[in-house]
Amino acid sequence: MPLYIADYLADTAHLRAAQSGAYLHLIMHYWLHGSLPNDDAQLAAIARMEPREWKKSRATLEAFFKPGWVHSRIEKELEEAKLKHGKRVKAGKAGAEARANNKQCSSNAQATTITTTKNISEAKASGAEAPIVETLEAKVYRVGKEVLGKPSGGVITNLRKHCRQDLQAVCDLLEQAKARGDPMEWIQGILRRSEAMPVSAKQLFPDEIYQNVL
Question: What's the structural domain count of the chain?
Answer without folding.
Answer: 3
